[in-house]
Amino acid sequence: MDMTFVAERGLVLLGCGKMGSAMLAGWLEGGLPASSVHVIDPAPSDWLQGTGVAINGAMPGDPAIVLIAVKPQMMTEALPAIKGFGADTLFVSVAAGTPIRAYEAALGAQATIVRAMPNTPAAVGRGITAIVGNAHAGDAELALAEMLLSAVGQVVRLDSEDQMDAVTAVSGSGPAYVFHLIEAMTNAGIAEGLPADLALKLARATVAGAGDLAEKSGEQPGQLRINVTSPGGTTAAALSILMDEASGFTPLLKRAVKAAADRSRELSA
To answer: What three-state secondary structure class fits 161?
Structure first.
């Protein structure tokens, strides 16, 4: 299966907010014809209306893919619009907190479903998405979902849906942790006498650059940390605080990620 297969049978996008728009932009840039895309959205943006895709009109009877990108609280209202497609249609959901069993209940036990968890850097093509399928989703269906979702970044496959709560806590919510790190570094710089705009510029570029280096260097993050830490130097002084076993960054992040994962489990239940 490839984009030609999707172009021939059509793709339905249920919901076109920030995530849906990011994915649609990636598909169109990747060569998917706008005429093959059918969007269902109650409040289409000006950008969406300028793409040339079909909006809130007649849909193909047997699309290759239906991608569900509505907010979880709108799911009950939105799902009836996509019920009744052919047995060969693949349903892919990027909605947080909605388990596969909920889609099977709404769309039928025989529906082929892939649940995905992307994150907000997808808006700039730097996201990472974890996917897992139900019993009807074989390797071909997972590969098709992976191809579509790779339009906005990396894709990884999970062994089971049980891992999705941890994924949500690490990468789904994770960008917020990094944004807060930038805020905290900025405020710390201001406290040490830097102008606010300069402190923000330094913090933002440092976090972005370090992340890029971590991805591209091929070295483990622990080794990268060692590389920049001179014994008895300034970095070592800071790390003696951040790496404290009781009050440092590691135990703090473990508690934060656990809280997010626990909340994800509550919402899924």
So the answer is: helix
